[in-house]
Fold each of these.
Amino acid sequence: MRTKVGVVTVSDRASQGVYPDRSGPEAMAFVGERWPEAEILYRLVPDEEEAIQEAVLALLGEGCRLLLLTGGTGPAPRDRTPEAVLPLLDKVFPGFGEAMRLASLRETPTAILSRALAGSRGEALVLLLPGNPRAVRTCLEAVWEAVATALRLLGG
């Protein structure tokens, strides 16, 4: 059975069709390049805590071992992804967020505002990424080597 990876884009405007989602497809492209045998499941939700939590729980319920959420990690009032996801996590892995911010800071000084983070729920690893497509790739490249190890350790 192929490992399932969930990708959730958190964006009011993309979910309303104001513009196309670019960060979710970037995350899916990255996973497809690095892990071609993975089965990728996708959701697009508004910046609402309940919608975010429902998407996360649904994908976990479908057996996703890795969840990548893009968007909602900045300082704006509607950026609520960490607040939605943190109560669902068993553990937080601060090093992932630190590495993602450090890598992003090499490209933009505003990366310091990012609230990107990672944690686990059961055997699943959950990563919260910025909504900028370029930042999605930068952050995933910064932590990708640790993802396989984390999944192996979480699986017992």
Amino acid sequence: MFDFANYGELVALVQNSIVAAAVLGIVGGLIGVFVMQRDMAFAVHGISELSFAGAAGALLIGANVVLGSLVGSLIAAVLIGLLGAKARDRNSIIGVLMPFGLGLGILFLALYPGRSANKFGLLTGQIISVDIPQLGLLVTLSVVVLVALLVVWRPLTFDSLDADVAAARGVPSRALSLGFMVLLGLTVAVSVQIIGSLLVLALLVTPAAAALRVSSSPLLVPLLSMLFGFVSAVGGILLALGGSLPISPYITTISFLIYVVCRIVGARKAAGRRASARLPLQAAR
């Protein structure tokens, strides 16, 4: 399965992809915390389907795939943000957009006369496709998302944890929700280039879910989520260089294993707390 001959040369060849994956893992892990707090994991998948359609359309007409992915993601994000204020409405809209986006993307790929590897890469990611202009675009979009999240961190956290109380305190919940959806759309768009549209949840949901299993600290959870996203993305690329499989299985496997370990650790910590709580009761008896 693995062949690490000339590994150093291969790492040098895909250094742009490694940098892009590192940035994406950090930003994806950070925004994933809010995705989990706002219960929007399903929305990530819905946006990724429209992102896939946009990328496939760009591939068909010979345009920039990242820009096509960006257009598709933003259309989906704005539609979900405007029409899905309530969870039930949001899930209905996502359920409508997902098959439409996937079907449209498959249509574009069926019409595309080029290499099948380009088609497959939109679904599962590519490790050697990030050139200097694309890397600049990916990093720029990631920095925009990161800075915007830091600016709205406090009100967005307040709105994510208790939207009704936040609205009563004057927090512009609807504007925040729409803005967050746009940021999520940008993140999904840059993720498609690395991990593919079908597996984007591995970087935007799983790291945050793992972090929440081992901590509830408002500081530690984002830091752990970013660390887990970074390790999954960069580790997946480094393993893929020595393997014969696409990048996405490695990233998703690392991300899943991190989640499993965190879930086990979290379960043991919870069991320890319950045991500690029972000791004073037993002593009192």
